[in-house]
Amino acid sequence: MNTYDRDEINFNKFLRSVRKSQKASLLKTTYGVCTKSEMSKVEKGTRLPEKLVRDRLTARLGISGEEYEEYLITKEYVQWQARMDIIRSINKKDVEATEEKIDAYEKLYTHNNVQKQFVATMRYMLYEIKGYDYKKRLKQMEIAMKYTVPDLEAAFSGCQLLADQELNLIMEYISLCDRSVVEENLPEWKMKYYKAIDNYVQKSYMDKIAQAKVYSKLACHVCELVFVYFKDEENMRYALDLCTRAIEVLRDTVRLYYFVEINEFRIRLMKTLNIENLEENEEYQDSVAWTELFHELYEENDIPTYMQNFTYLYTETECNDVSEVVRIRRQMMGLSMNKLAAKSSSERTICRIENREGNPQLETLRDVLDAVGLCGEFHRARVVTTNAEAMRVSEVLCKQMNFGEYDKAVETHKILGELLDLSIAFNYQEMKRSEALILRGLKKIEVEKHCSLLKGILEDTIDFENLRHVEEKYFSRIETYCIQNLVGIKKGDDTGICKDFLEQECEKFIKMDELEASRFCTYEMIMYCCANYLGNNKAYVKSVEITRKLLKESLRNRKAVYLTNCEYNELWTKQKLLEEENKSIDNKVVLDSLTRGLLLSKLTRRTNWKNFFQQKLDEYLNVIIK
Fold first, then answer.
1. Distance, CA of 206 to CA of 61 (rounded, Å)
2. Whole-angstrom distance, CA of residue 129 vs CA of residue 126
3. For the packed helices 51-60 and 74-91, what is the interaxial angle rounded to 10 degrees?
């Protein structure tokens, strides 16, 4: 294992750097969340706000933070678990359990406006489940919104920044308002604020995921308003443009929030506007095909087609108990507490961390995490940095690699390397991993060399020999990426350790009735890899089982990342199972599956998959014709 000197990046430094790069004032950033004085202390590093406040402040600066690891001290981890328990109960529509959990949370944790807003919002969703009339729901939504957005008109006059959660609360409030609340023309008043939200997002620094969460819901609200109150061409064309923008940002982020609803609205708007040559209009035909496809997929998997609530806005992903993580990683590395202490702090401190005692200093936690090969720096991007341009470039690089645009990725990778601090182990590993993938994608290295590079990256933070002797394992996201890539290569994992880990995780996955949304980001990556590995090793039945479960959970979580892969994996595995029985697969099943794959690959902009499915479809049709 290598060790690195590093320029430590904590929350305080990250927040200050991003805020100043956007020229956002302290007052605008903190309005309704905390005082200017408190924010000043945060940026100076003399005070660390709790997780919900941290998340809200970064969200106001346009950073969604979804899918990135966070190691929480016990106190914060317990609060996080309580919030996720409430969300699970709401999603299950368990009224009694939801009421009990909200009441318990309110008694323990509502000591700032963001916590109070969370509780008030959960109560609002509980009222929806109970079927309360709109007046009671309106009052509750107003309470929730005003905790951090006390003045609706002032919010859009430039006095404060707004997070995606706050914009969604504003939309919900506006949609419920009636003439008893608004003195002026109600439809025009609603449209004024919907357009203000649209304008705010366009001018903000919101990342794509945050935009997807806002635009998807905004498009639905505007369309509902237009069809009830506005029948003029100008407003209908505005609604159509908004639907198209919402669909495009959902495609960019491979999310499915309100996807069926928006496509149905787009179809209806284009028909109402008498758009010419609809049979040849690509956007119209896409919406028709995608709507039909997702109605089928949701029905087949017994999942509601239409969005039931907006708990997805409050699902905090990839949170880990630092005590458990440190204990597991220490054992993975074969270190006693004494030996780990020699690399980081004192044996007494290690013992207290693992036993969940006290609140260790952030500097201490960073040192300990660093000593067990994990990233102790605060990050809200695929790399650890406070440089906004580096964060943007890292996302561009990821997209280019996903789409197979390796020629473009070469230059992007070079630019990113110049922007990053490569003394940070996490950054070094990510750059080496992406370099290996690009070289392999360009066919400049053979499989053996690719495997060697991936193993070298993993061995930077993992002691493979010692892994043979431990049952519990925790891999970071970057390590999991490498494992996924390695196991996906034939004979790539000659140690068998990575495959053992995947199979253990696979068993956990299969036993879960419903996969936690908060853990889904990691599990989808592991399970797709595991399904492929099992299929390639003729364990077809289990491969199909995992693929179907992954497909269902992807739909439930409104994510489209692996839908294309799942479609082909299931078709291929079914064919192999029938071949073992000397049977052939029905032509209609193959054609339907390939057509679905083609539609899904177009939706997710996976050009390589789209070309693959088109080729397979053409070949199969030629065989049938002959």
1. 7
2. 5
3. 70
Q: Phi, psi (5° rounding) for residue 405?
A: -90, 65
Helix (H, G, I), strand (E, B) or coil at 376: coil
Q: 77-90 burial, b for 16+ CB within 10 Å, e for fewer? A: bebbeebbebbbbb
Strands 70-72 and 319-321: parallel
Close Cβ partners of 484 (under 8 Å, ≥ 6 residues apart):
525, 526, 528, 529
The CA distance from 539 to 169, in Å, is 47
Strand pairing partners for 269?
none
Residue 2: pLDDT above 50? no
The one-letter code for the residue type at 454 is L
Residues 161-187: tens digit of each pLDDT: 999 999 999 999 999 998 888 878 999
Bridge partners, 71 (sequence order): 320
Give CA–CA dist 137/169, Å, rounded.
12
| Total-model pTM | 0.91
Residue 515 pLDDT exceeds 70: no
The torsion angles phi and psi of 622, rounded to 5 degrees, stand at -65, -40
Residue type at 377 in one-letter notation: E
The CA distance from 423 to 252, in Å, is: 31
* Planar angle of CA 355, 53, 124, nearest 5 degrees: 105
User: For residue range 299-350, what is the model confidence (pLDDT) as tens digits?
Assistant: 999 999 999 888 889 988 888 899 999 999 999 888 899 999 888 888 899 9
Distance in angstroms (rounded) separating the CA atoms of residues 222 and 261: 12
Q: Where are the beta strands (DSSP E) in 318-444?
A: 319-321
DSSP assignment letter at 279: G
DSSP string, 161-206: ---HHHHHHHHHHHHH--TTT--S-HHHHHHHHHHHHHHHHHHS--
Measured from the Cβ of residue 539, the count of other Cβ atoms closer than 10 Å reads 17
Q: Which tokens is 470 given?
A: 């431990």
If one counts every other C-beta atom within 10 angstroms of the C-beta of residue 63, the result is 24
Can you tell me the distance from the alpha carbon of 222 to that of 239, in angstroms, rounded to the nearest whole number? 6
Residue 535, both tokens: 């299929």
Return the number of other C-beta atoms located less than 10 Å from residue 504's C-beta.
15
Average pLDDT on 494-519 reads: 66
Dig out the tokens for 444 from the structure. Answer: 């400049």
Distances (CA, A) of 398 to 253, 401, 406: 12, 5, 10
Alpha carbons 120 and 114: distance in angstroms, whole number: 10
Residue 481: the pLDDT is 81
- The least confident of 84-88, 521-525, 601-605 is 521-525
Q: pLDDT-based confidence at 1, cuts 50/70/90?
A: very low
Tokens of 550: 């992954």
Residue 545, Cβ density class (10 Å: 0-12 exposed, 13-18 middle, ≥19 buried): middle
What are the CA-CA distances from residue 68 to residues 16, 108, 367, 520 (Å)?
A: 19, 27, 19, 12
Whether the Cβ atoms of residue 320 and residue 72 lie closer than 8 Å to each other: yes
Tokens of 6: 């590093």
Q: What is the mean pLDDT of the chain?
A: 88
